[in-house]
């Protein structure tokens, strides 16, 4: 099966590599073309533009940074819209808001193509291991056609109904995750400043009711101050911003998420946007008393 793949960042590279390793023929495109090289070494073909990829493949997957990127790849010259037609599918797995997804869906379906949004939960390692959780919504027939690929990239796929529901589910999940990361950062700092061993805090947390893989995975590297990016902080802040907008639309008070968003914004202003989202720890860690 020939599939297209647009966007070879942290996630797209791992996901398309898995498809290749499991026997899919993959045609890739990335704005910075040099990022295609490693995929080519593993058997991928390169398309010169998104339109060229879409013209060649029965369906094309995209994994792009944010709404602006997702819209650019579809609507700009030689973009997805220039290649899409009846019988072809477009699957956007980027994390965007439902308005962006709906705009893309309308443009694709107006040209006769079919559209599925399918954002994912899970970071670099789950992407490498084919352990993502896929949150699909849109054209059911395209979802069913894509199941063999989803089964390679993920451990579980959900079909959530009409376009927008996948985007919303992903934003709700990441709103919770971003808020938890901030509470965790404050807990680490509080333990440290009050004379406790943060490593012992990790052990205690891991044995109790709020034990979770994120604390387990990120805790040790945060204590070391190692923020090598798996999930870039700028993307987590984008997700908080989009989730807060969804809260506005639905009149849902979200004071905890709003505070977490401010912390991620502060981290971005400190130059930490390209670090892992756990670098938000630095926003509380920096306020060290000068002599004590
Ligand atoms: N990393 C993670 O843990 C997870 C990320 N996500 C979501 O997946 C998406 C991708 O994340 P990730 O791979 O980490 O991000 P990266 O920042 O590593 O990659 C972003 C990709 O988007 C491309 N891009 C950005 N702007 C444009 C544009 N204007 N036109 C064309 N291409 C563009 C980049 O191209 P170029 O190489 O040229 O810059 C790159 O291929 C995001 O929506 C993120 O929120 C979801 C789950 C987990
Ligand atoms: O969007 C990020 C994730 O870890 O999921």
TrEMBL record:
Residue ranges occupied by any 6-phosphogluconate dehydrogenase NADP-binding domain in the UniProt entry: 2-161
Active site per UniProt: 170
GO molecular function ontology, one term from the record: NADP binding
Entry keyword set: NAD, NADP, Oxidoreductase, Stress response
InterPro entries: 3-OH-isobutyrate_DH-rel_CS, 6-PGluconate_DH-like_C_sf, 6PGD_dom2, 6PGDH_NADP-bd, HIBADH-like_NADP-bd, HIBADH-related, HIBADH-related_NP60_sf, NAD(P)-bd_dom_sf
Pfam families: NAD_binding_11 (PF14833), NAD_binding_2 (PF03446)
Residues of the 3-hydroxyisobutyrate dehydrogenase-like NAD-binding domain: 164-282
Catalytic activity as recorded in UniProt: glycolate + NADP(+) = glyoxylate + NADPH + H(+); 4-hydroxybutanoate + NADP(+) = succinate semialdehyde + NADPH + H(+)
Keyword NADP among UniProt keywords: yes
GO cellular component, one term: cytosol
Family statement drawn from the similarity comment of this UniProt entry: Belongs to the HIBADH-related family. NP60 subfamily.
Protein role: Catalyzes the NADPH-dependent reduction of glyoxylate to glycolate as well as succinic semialdehyde (SSA) to gamma-hydroxybutyrate in vitro. May function in redox homeostasis and play a role in oxidative stress tolerance by detoxifying glyoxylate and SSA generated in glycolate metabolism and GABA metabolism, respectively.
Protein name: Glyoxylate/succinic semialdehyde reductase 1
